[in-house]
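Two proteins follow. First one:
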Amino acid sequence: SILTVNHDHPSFKNMWRPQWKIDEEEDTRGEMKKGIIGFIPDGGVYMFEERVSRLRCSFDFKDMPFDRQQCSITVIMYQSSSINDTIAKLFSYAPDIELSVENIDNA
């Protein structure tokens, strides 16, 4: 089974998560940002984040009304020094969450 912790869980905001950003992001609506961290039986961890943001993009209108625009989304992720430090940080801020490689349970 898979253990998931969503943004409403009291420990979610204290859990370590990879630091990342969208380079073209101008603004994010905080109330429209949701996240889930999942722990799978083989020891893997995944993070899913959903957000509503305003992004910047330069437009070229020289061929208007037949112009076509192309915008980029650049995701920048900062790396951790080691995987062991990453796992230790993840669980040190959420003492009420336990992970067992042999069995993961939502109970």
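Second one, unrelated to the first:
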Amino acid sequence: MAKQEAKITYQDKATQTETEEEDTIEKLLKAITTLCIKVDSMDNEIQKLKTNEDNLKSKASQQHDYKNAELRRPEDGKNPELKRRRWETP
């Protein structure tokens, strides 16, 4: 009878160990899934920020071009002396 009690205890311990391992694996999988979701979310946010940055750079460039166009007078293009000086290196 002592052998049978010892055998049952061993089986209970083995079952308990398997259950603990399964719980640990399940917790690890949940943690990995959560991390993957967060990484995907961060990647989406980074893409939005990059797009926003590109849009702002484009707007700034367009505004810069517009200001340069406003500053340039039509007569400047007709005067060869001014045209030559503009493109000469100092």
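SUMMARY FIELD: The CA atoms of residues 69 and 81 lie 19 Å apart. The chain has a mean pLDDT of 77.
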